Amino acid sequence: MKERTVLIDIVDPETNLNESKLRLDELESLVKTYGGASVLKTFQRRSRPAYQTYMGLGKLEEILKDLGGADNIDVIILNNILKPRQIYNIEEFCHKHEIEKQKELERFQVPKKIKVWDRVDLILKIFDKHATTAEAKLQIELASIKHMGPRIFGMGLELSRQAGGIGTVGVGETNTEIMKRHLKNRTKLIEDKIKNFGDIQKRQRSSRREKNLKTVALAGYTNAGKSTLIKALTKKQEVYIADALFATLDSKVGELFLPVVRQKVMVADTIGFIQDLPPSLIQAFKTTLAEIVDADLILHVIDVGDSNIKLKIKVVNEILNELLDGKQTKQIYVFNKSDLLENKGWSEEAKLEYIADLTEEFIDYQPQIVSALDKDSLPRLIECIENNLSLVAKS
Ligand SMILES: Nc1nc2c(ncn2[C@@H]2O[C@H](COP(=O)(O)OP(=O)(O)OP(=O)(O)O)[C@@H](O)[C@H]2O)c(=O)[nH]1
Ligand SMILES: [Mg+2]
Fold first, then answer.
1. CATH architecture assigned to 4-117
2. What's residue 238's pLDDT?
3. Using CA positions, which residue lies closest to atom 6 of ligand 1?
4. What's the alpha-carbon Rg for the chain, to the nearest Å?
5. Which ligand is nearest to the CA of 232?
6. What is the DSSP pairing of strand 4-11 with strand 263-269?
7. What is the pTM of this model?
8. Which of 48-52, 132-136, 223-227, 301-305 has the lowest mean pLDDT?
9. At residue 169, does pLDDT exceed 50?
10. Which residues make up the CATH 3.40.50.300 domain(s) of the chain?
11. Which fold has domain 212-388?
12. What's the burial of 360, exposed, middle or buried (CB within 10 Å: 0-12/13-18/19+)?
């Protein structure tokens, strides 16, 4: 059975209704990708988070009462980044509510526990589900250790008791210390293994450079159509495409032949971006994202019909700036899924005006309007790539 989830977003009082709705819709898509069902979507306006519990408990109590607590809720997901203690406190609050409810109903079963996740927990669970390569799995484990810390072991926060009993452990060492040491060792081991993968990829990239092979990297918000585009542009066919968030978690490189200069270039596809990602998560995927950092040209792939298009462009640019760390790689905006504009119920005139406005606003990035599903729209993009790589034609 699908897990029944309650989605709660804590937003700034200035966030308007439309934006709040889009935020919750995105959270719902994440839950759908994870395989859960949402029984309630709601938001709470707060100028600052509650110190102990992030969200206000009045609202939480209301939700638990209205929905019948753990009888109808498996997981409460907050669309924010919480501290481990805040997550623990909300779990405890739900648990106490459940005990009270059982008493009132004169039920005597062991009360069921409602799980509490924040946005990063949910994203990590999706990553975990989608990871297929050893490298992606290690990167996710590293990100999980960084985000969850002791929660990884389901140990809540009662860690400071002394470890008793049969001792491999030094006298006076507390559970917290054992845990910290274990996590530190594990982190080091994973980081070393990831570094090995990184070194192999680095060698591949430098060998490409020695052969004078240029690389074009696809970057963009998750679900923009990057993998569909690499499949359409290159011979790389074993690419996973899905109408889900974070379908791609590693990097794939394919070859594209440029007809005028008669040379091939490499095209790299990587993990998509999303708003409100903690830097530690981006850090964990650094080797995968290195294709973007080392690229000669970046194609920023954008879903042209997305109702939140401007915000998504901004989010991607912020992450790219962080990754590139001052490196000035040329960026081209590729507005993808142009075929879907037909479904918006707009007149031909309104559609052309929308495209003209986008083109004008982002003129510095040589906007390309394409549909990865319609190969006829791609030659112009290929020509644009060719013009931006300053290659000399081979005779
Ligand atoms: N109609 C239409 N659908 C598209 C187009 N490009 C991609 N899609 C669909 O959009 C969804 C996401 O495509 P992907 O290529 O997996 O997107 P992605 O950017 O690689 O996503 P992540 O790997 O999750 O970051 C899939 O259902 C694709 O079939 C397009 O040009 N037109
Ligand atoms: Mg993809």
1. 3-Layer(aba) Sandwich (3.40)
2. 79
3. 225
4. 24
5. 1
6. unpaired
7. 0.89
8. 132-136
9. no
10. 212-388
11. Rossmann fold (3.40.50)
12. exposed
